[in-house]
Amino acid sequence: MITATLKFICKIDGWLHRSKFLYSRESEGNSACMSIGEKLWWGYKYFYRPVEKAEKGKNIEEFFEKQELDFTLLNNFKEEGKLSFTAGGDILASHHIRPDNTLHLWEEAEDFLFDTDICCANLETPVVPSASASFVPVNILKAPALNNTPEVFELLFRKGKGINFFSTANNHCLDMGEAGLLETLDFLDKKGCPHVGTARNENQRDDFPVIEKNGIRIAFLSYTFSTNGKTVPEGREYLVNYIRLNRPDCDISFIEKQINKAKTERKADLIIACLHWSLEFEAYPIRNVIDMGHKLLSLGIDIIVGNHPHGIQPMEKYAFVDPYSGVKKQGLIVYALGDLISCHDHIPNSRLNNLIRLKISKGKIEGKQLTIISELRIRPMYIYSKMEGGNCMDFRLLNFNKLINEIKSGNNRFKLEQTTLNELNRLEALKHKLLKTELMDYISPT
User: CA-to-CA distance for 391 and 351, rounded, in angstroms?
Assistant: First the structure.
């Protein structure tokens, strides 16, 4: 009854503001700071209409239409070493996702995602074995307190042969309180799984991971713009790297300090930052977030892997001068990969996500040492769930482009209903709008 009433209020508010609600608009999106109007807008996006138009008058859609994402090596670059890096999006908890219905979970993703040196994703849920599992609530007025099971985690980790690196700074990291955050770190450490973004103490926070493969040292940083209104205990700010990234006047001196440490003390060749930022249920980042991405690369970050919006957003190749080497480089900003593992009833856009695969090369150009992105590949995925009587019987990730091509050729192997086929057509159009690139990985190898 409460949810039905809330939906009705959000629908009326959406009708009253229907022209304004079609477009993204400047907002921090931090639940701790939302006005009543912002909360109603959030509810409208959640229940009825994700925002697929960028902020008015800021040329954001035109900017991303011109994006060219080719990172092909220059002929005069002398490659000395290389490694592969893959990333997926947010991992959430749902009672629909279980070991018994995920036997085919990775069949159309594993060749792309797991056959790599480093595979990264955002663990947007604590894993606290001492507590009961907890999922996204039916009533959104109740603050979600996520907690995933060790069994579901193992579906992801696969004894180190699946996702082998997790960012943990996100708006759900304190869902089980400080004790749950610490137990999650204990759980990851016992698995031997590297992570970044939350920490037990200042020393651990500042000792962020630097992974060396094939002579290339990559530093990983992680920050979140929100903790869902849960206060980080005074004096223990080290628990989570909480920085309000969506704000134009945000103080990023702590990030600058960590970049400097990565480059000067830890001798990192390249820095990857996992950022929880931007606005939920929106297809484009707001101008504040775009400007923040540019600012962070100009400080020395090479790659940003962004998440939080529960849907894909564009990617950007951004030229900057590395302040530590003085060399011009091409960085990558992934504004949002979307949900890697989730099951939202109300948000069809969350079923489409992107996987990225990068080749990172170390070598010399005109005698100068340089570590750069030398290849980008993208594989869009579709979250498929077969429901029977409210129970999920089959949950898996499907190669989106392969699925679309099959359906166009008359092969509806999952016997999808017409409403789902219509949604797939809409999602295909949205994908092409957000990522005008030929770097898509269309068909899985056979």
Answer: 18
Round to whole Å and give the CA distance between 42 and 286. 15
For residue 142, the 8-state DSSP code is: S
- Residue 422, CA distances (Å) to 90, 384, 407, 418, 425 in order: 25, 15, 11, 6, 5
Residue 58 DSSP label: S
* Residue 104 CB neighbours (<10 A): 13
DSSP β-ladder status, 315-321 and 270-276:
unpaired
Averaged over 103-113, what is the pLDDT?
97
Asked if residue 141 has pLDDT above 60, the reply is no
Q: If DSSP codes are grouped into helix, strand and coil, which group holds residue 418?
A: helix
| Per-residue three-class SS string for 286-308 | CHHHHHHHHHHHHHCCCEEEEEC
Pick from 59, 87, 20, 21: nearest CA to 312:
87
**pTM for the full model?**
0.96
Average pLDDT over residues 364-379: 92
Backbone angles phi, psi at 164, to 5 degrees: -120, 15
Q: Calculate Rg over the CA atoms of the chain.
A: 21
Largest CA distance in the chain: 69
Q: Looking at this protein, which amino acid is placed at residue 33?
A: C
* b/e code 367-399 from CB counts within 10 Å (16+ = b): eeebbbbbbbbbbbbbbbbeeeeeebeebbbbb
- Please calculate the CA angle 381-386-389 and round it to the nearest 5 degrees: 150
Question: Half-sphere exposure of 126 toward its Cβ, with a 13 Å CA cutoff?
Answer: 30
Euclidean distance between CA atoms 375 and 94, whole angstroms: 34
- Segments of 197-321 assigned E as strands: 210-213, 216-224, 270-276, 303-307, 315-321
Q: In this predicted structure, what is the pLDDT of residue 338?
A: 97
Let me know if 143 is exposed, middle or buried by CB neighbors in 10 A (0-12, 13-18, 19+): exposed
